[in-house]
Amino acid sequence: MKIKREFVLREIAGDILLVPTGKTALDLNGMLTLNGVGADIWKMLPEVENEDEIVRRLLEEYEADPKQVKHDVGEFLNKFRELGIL
Questions:
Q1: Predicted pLDDT at 18
Q2: 23: pLDDT strictly greater than 90
Q3: Phi, psi at residue 36, to the nearest 5°?
Q4: Tell me, what's the pLDDT at 68?
């Protein structure tokens, strides 16, 4: 999957943040806070081809309901698409 904007993933005071850099910092006002699973998904994005691969990898890592994981990943990615990140 292709990330369209420039961000750096940082952990600050126990929070996991996506910090915009370059032109992205001018376009987006603020940082994005992620939970641990969101950070895992972010790290996968440059190397996965599709949403199903993200779901498969998360199910290998976490014990969770596959339908719920698919739904949650879809919502996460849709939000990033809305923001122009993907």
A1: 93
A2: no
A3: -60, -40
A4: 97
CA distances to 26, 27, 31, 76 from 36, rounded to whole Å, are 26, 25, 16, 13
Give the integer Cα–Cα distance in Å for 85 and 7.
Answer: 9
Split at pLDDT 50, 70, 90, the class of 49 is: very high
Six token digits for residue 79: 């939000």
Q: What's the whole-model pTM score?
A: 0.88
What phi and psi, each to the nearest 5 degrees, are found at residue 35?
-90, 180
Q: How far apart are CA 84 and CA 77, in angstroms?
A: 10
Structure tokens at 32: 């994005």
Q: Rounded CA gap, 84 and 86, in Å?
A: 6
- Which spans in the chain are helix H? 22-27, 36-44, 51-61, 66-82
